[in-house]
Design goal:
single chain; elongated
């Protein structure tokens, strides 16, 4: 039920979920409830820009996330910077993207 998803997300806004888990929860709600970003942001009472920044966690390759034990240590700003770096590398070429990703994984 759409309303139940949204109520749960609102409750999570005040809980200590890490940003990555929060983004996954938003993504699930967007799909399950067939909502647009701006619609969910409005239901949560947060600005569209804030919502978009929080979703940047999902732009990071899952292979990199698999190497991060404590995702709580990755701030929204760090996730946004990683997403920008990986997106720029992806636009250059697949080999540059793979090399950049592998270097990040090796850290």
């Amino acid at each position: 039920d759409q309303e139940a998803y949204v109520v749960q997300l609102i409750a999570n806004e005040h809980s200590p979920l890490c940003g990555y888990s929060q983004a996954l929860s938003y993504e699930r709600t967007l799909k399950e409830c067939n909502l647009k970003y701006y619609e969910l942001a409005a239901k949560l009472g947060i600005a569209n820009a804030t919502f978009t920044r929080r979703m940047c966690y999902l732009e990071i390759d899952k292979r990199l996330w698999a190497q991060i034990d404590n995702k709580r240590n990755i701030s929204t700003a760090t996730a946004a910077n990683l997403a920008v770096l990986l997106n720029k590398a992806r636009k250059i070429s697949k080999s540059i993207y793979d090399k950049t990703l592998n270097q990040l994984i090796a850290l």
